[in-house]
From TrEMBL:
Domain B30.2/SPRY: from-to ranges: 204-421
Protein name in UniProt: TRI47 protein
PANTHER family: B-BOX DOMAIN CONTAINING, TRIPARTITE MOTIF-CONTAINING PROTEIN 47
Domain of life: Eukaryota
Gene name of the record: Trim47
A GO molecular-function descriptor: zinc ion binding
Protein keywords: Coiled coil, Metal-binding, Zinc, Zinc-finger
Coiled-coil stretches: 8-60
Family matches, as InterPro entries: B30.2/SPRY, B30.2/SPRY_sf, Butyrophylin_SPRY, ConA-like_dom_sf, E3_ubiq-ligase_TRIM/RNF, SPRY_dom, TRIM8/14/16/25/29/45/65_CC
Length: 428
C-alpha cells in the first residue's frame, strides 16, 4: 500500500509538472503565432510600401519618356511638315516656270521671281532635342535599380539563412578574427578579405602552374566592377553597367572631363589602392584589351600615347584576333596560348603584381604575370626590363579597371565570376 501510495503521488507530481509545461508550451505556441503574425503584417506592409515606391518610380520614368517623346516628336513632325511644304512649293514654282512659253517674257519673269523668292525663304531652325540624352538614359537608370534590388534581395536572403554577405558563412567570418575595420569591401560591398590576408599572405609565384585551380588564389577580394558612363568614348555603347560594345555611329554622351576622346576606352567606377583584387571579363567579339590605369590619367591624350599599355600609367592584356599580347610602357610581349572566352585579372598591391588568366571550367591558365623579376645574366628582354624599371611606380597611384575596344563591333561583358569558382573562394 505504501508503494502504491508513493507511485500515485509520483504520478500526481508528474501530471502537475506536465500541466505546467503544457501551459508554458501553449503560451510559447501563442507567442510564436503572435510574433509570426505581427512579423508577417510588418513584412506585408513594407512590401506594399516598396511596391508603391517602385510603382511611383515607374510612373515617373514612363511619364518622363512620354514627355520626352512628345517634345521631340512635336519638333520633328513640325520640321517634317515644313520640309514637305517647302518641297511642294518649290516643285510647283518650278513646274509653273517650265510651263511658261518662251514668247511670254513677262509671265516668265514673274514665275522666275516667284521661284527665286521661294528659294530664298528662311530655312527652318535646326532640331535641338535638348532632352534626348536624358530620355535615352531611362533604360540604364532602371537597369541600375534592378541590379541594386537583385543584389540586395540576394544578400538579405543569405543573411536570413544565417550566411554572410553574398553567401559567406557568418561563422567563417567570426573565425577569421577580423573586426569590421579590418574588412575591405569592393566599392559595391559584395565580398571581403580580412586585413591580415591582404598584407601579402599567400603569394602567387611567377612559376604558377599552367592549369592551377581557382582555390590557389589566396585571400582575394572578388571585385565587382561597374562601368563608368562618364568615361566612355563616344564610339562605345554601354549595356547597363556591365556590357560595352564599339559602334560605328557616335553616341551623344553629355560632356564630361573624364571622357576619353581619342581612344575607344572605358573605365570602371571602382578604385583600387591596397589589398588583392580579382575580376573576370567575357570576350564576346572582336579585339579587346583588358587592364588597369592610373586614376589621374589624362583621357585627352593622343591616340598613340593614350591607348592602354602604350604609356607608363597603364598596362593591359590584348586579344588581337590571333594571340594574346601583354603591353606596358609601349613595350609588348606576345603570349602563345589558345583563346579563352573568360579572362581573369588578379591584382596584388602588396606584391606590385598583375596577373592575367584564361579561365575555363573553373580552372585557370596563367597567361602573363607583370612583376619585377631580375633577368638572368646575358638575357635581354626589353619588355621585362621595362617592367623592372617602371612598373612598381604604377602602384603608387590609385588604379581603375580599364578596357579598350579596338575593333568595330568589339564586345565585352564584365563577370560575374564562375559559380564554382566563387564557391571555392567562399570556403577559403
Amino acid at each position: 500500500q505504501a508503494q502504491q501510495a508513493k507511485f500515485l503521488s509520483d504520478v500526481e507530481n508528474e501530471l502537475e509538472e506536465l500541466a505546467v509545461t503544457i501551459t508554458q508550451a501553449k503560451k510559447m505556441v501563442e507567442l510564436i503565432k503572435g510574433a509570426a503574425t505581427k512579423e508577417r503584417e510588418r513584412v506585408e506592409k513594407l512590401f506594399a510600401e516598396a511596391s508603391e515606391v517602385l510603382a511611383s518610380f515607374q510612373k515617373e520614368v514612363m511619364g518622363f519618356i512620354e514627355d520626352g517623346e512628345r517634345s521631340m516628336l512635336g519638333e520633328a513632325e513640325a520640321d517634317l511638315r515644313w520640309k514637305e511644304e517647302r518641297r511642294a512649293k518649290l516643285a510647283q514654282c518650278k513646274q509653273n516656270l517650265e510651263n511658261v512659253t518662251s514668247t511670254d517674257t513677262i509671265y516668265f519673269l514673274q514665275e522666275f521671281q516667284a521661284l527665286k523668292v521661294a528659294m530664298e525663304e528662311n530655312l527652318s531652325p535646326p532640331l535641338s532635342f535638348q532632352k534626348e540624352l536624358n530620355f535615352t538614359k531611362c533604360t540604364q537608370a532602371v537597369g541600375a535599380i534592378k541590379d541594386v534590388l537583385s543584389t540586395a534581395c540576394k544578400n538579405q536572403w543569405n543573411h536570413l539563412q544565417g550566411k554572410g554577405i553574398d553567401g559567406l558563412n557568418c561563422q567563417e567570418m567570426e573565425e577569421g578574427g577580423s573586426s569590421s575595420q579590418d574588412r575591405q569591401f569592393s566599392s559595391r560591398g559584395r565580398l571581403w578579405a580580412p586585413k591580415h590576408a591582404r598584407a601579402g599572405a599567400g603569394r602567387i609565384s611567377s612559376h604558377f602552374p599552367p592549369r592551377a585551380h581557382f582555390s590557389l588564389l589566396p585571400h582575394t577580394v572578388a571585385f565587382i566592377i561597374d562601368l563608368d558612363s562618364d568615361t566612355a568614348d563616344k564610339f562605345i555603347q554601354l549595356f547597363g553597367t556591365k556590357g560595352a560594345k564599339r559602334v560605328l555611329c557616335p553616341i551623344p554622351y553629355p560632356e564630361s572631363p573624364t571622357r576619353f576622346i581619342n581612344c575607344e576606352q572605358v573605365l570602371g567606377l571602382n578604385l583600387m589602392n591596397r589589398g588583392n583584387y580579382y575580376w573576370e571579363v567575357e570576350l564576346i567579339d572582336g579585339w579587346v584589351s583588358i587592364g588597369v590605369i592610373a586614376e589621374d590619367f589624362d583621357p585627352h591624350e593622343a591616340y598613340n600615347h593614350g591607348r592602354l599599355g602604350r604609356n607608363d600609367r597603364s598596362c593591359c592584356l590584348q586579344w588581337n584576333g590571333q594571340n594574346y599580347v601583354a603591353w606596358f610602357g609601349g613595350f609588348e610581349c606576345t603570349i602563345q596560348q589558345p583563346f579563352f572566352h573568360t579572362i581573369g585579372v588578379f591584382l596584388e598591391y602588396s606584391e606590385k603584381a598583375l596577373t592575367f588568366y584564361g579561365v575555363k571550367d573553373s580552372k585557370m591558365t596563367c597567361l602573363q604575370q607583370l612583376k619585377v623579376s631580375p633577368l638572368a645574366k646575358g638575357k635581354l628582354d626589353p619588355f621585362q626590363n621595362k617592367i623592372n624599371i617602371h612598373f612598381p611606380s604604377l602602384f603608387s597611384c590609385k588604379l581603375k579597371p580599364a578596357f579598350f575596344l579596338e575593333s568595330v563591333d568589339a564586345h565585352l561583358q564584365i563577370g560575374p565570376l564562375k559559380r564554382d569558382c566563387v564557391s571555392v573562394l567562399k570556403r577559403r
